[in-house]
Q: What sequence folds into this?
């Protein structure tokens, strides 16, 4: 053990010694600390034994500090002042949203939607700072030190706390130019004759999911382009390269203005959910709570989000 190690007992002895000095007597200190006079006396003797030094001269009428005790008390007082500051720092952090909030989110969702709302969040809570890292990989919150993750899934991690932000619809779509040249598939099997633009990690087994007569159906798809970013696939589809399956949050503007047309809506699978997930914590940080509540408010409180306004025009 290092020579400068301070044990919990010694720290407690420092606090007790300071209380005796400031109270002016063992009796007064005992009353202040809600201890017996004998308990205070024994603790003081134990502290002097640890230090191998006499701290107080005590008689039946008065007590006075020794030279060593006077120097030691000054250091004890500074330690206790710092301890008080530590407690106040914790109180401040748990009283209001302050400090750095580390968030991880998928690239497309974070770029399109989280980033646009960060100014308002920080305006509401000026004591906060946000470190938003965009990545499509599954981040380990504990291992990598993140406070919060945004995930799009229908199978949340049971070891994490999850709060729903908004439903995420997946839409098969293509540009009018592509459909005019190659025709419009009327059922999932019709995709077999089309150029399909795919996101490999979201196309397990090289197939897109559908509901056919209420039952899950995996339709094999293939095409000239594979990319690992929804926004990049969006641009390729707008260029008329083929049919794409995108989350509606990435293509809502294009679906609304007609530059992309939704396909096979009668066969669409149920929406997934955008979730805010964080590690279980009995004392949830105010900055995490503030961010989650804010995002729920802005994204629809688990109901229909603003980016699905295109559905009104689609008759859904």
A:
């Amino acid at each position: 053990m290092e020579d400068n190690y301070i044990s919990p007992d010694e720290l407690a002895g420092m606090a007790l010694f300071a209380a005796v000095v400031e109270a002016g007597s063992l009796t007064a200190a005992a009353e202040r600390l809600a201890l017996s006079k004998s308990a205070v006396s024994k603790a003081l003797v134990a502290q002097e034994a640890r230090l191998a030094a006499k701290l107080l001269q005590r008689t039946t009428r008065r007590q006075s500090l020794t030279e060593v005790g006077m120097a030691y008390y000054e250091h004890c007082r500074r330690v206790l002042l710092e301890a008080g500051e530590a407690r106040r720092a914790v109180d401040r952090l748990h009283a209001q949203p302050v400090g750095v909030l580390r968030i991880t989110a998928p690239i497309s969702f974070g770029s399109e939607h989280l980033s646009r709302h960060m100014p308002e969040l920080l305006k509401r809570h000026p004591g906060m700072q946000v470190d938003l890292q965009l990545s499509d990989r599954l981040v380990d919150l504990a291992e990598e030190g993140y406070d919060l993750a945004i995930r799009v899934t229908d199978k949340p991690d049971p070891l994490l706390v999850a709060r729903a932000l908004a439903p995420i619809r997946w839409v098969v779509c293509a540009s009018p130019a592509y459909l005019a040249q190659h025709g419009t598939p009327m059922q999932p099997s019709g995709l077999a004759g089309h150029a399909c633009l795919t996101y490999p990690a979201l196309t397990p087994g090289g197939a897109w999911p559908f509901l056919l007569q209420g039952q899950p159906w995996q339709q094999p798809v293939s095409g000239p382009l594979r990319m690992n970013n929804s926004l990049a696939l969006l641009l390729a589809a707008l260029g008329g390269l083929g049919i794409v399956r995108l989350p509606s949050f990435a293509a809502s503007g294009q679906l609304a203005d007609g530059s992309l047309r939704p396909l096979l809506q009668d066969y669409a699978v149920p929406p997934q959910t955008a979730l805010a997930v964080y590690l279980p914590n009995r004392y949830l940080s105010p900055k995490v709570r503030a961010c989650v509540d804010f995002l729920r408010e802005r994204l629809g409180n688990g109901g229909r989000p603003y980016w699905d306004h295109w559905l009104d025009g689609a008759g859904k």
About this structure: The domain at 99-166+272-303 is CATH 3.40.190.10 (D-Maltodextrin-Binding Protein; domain 2).
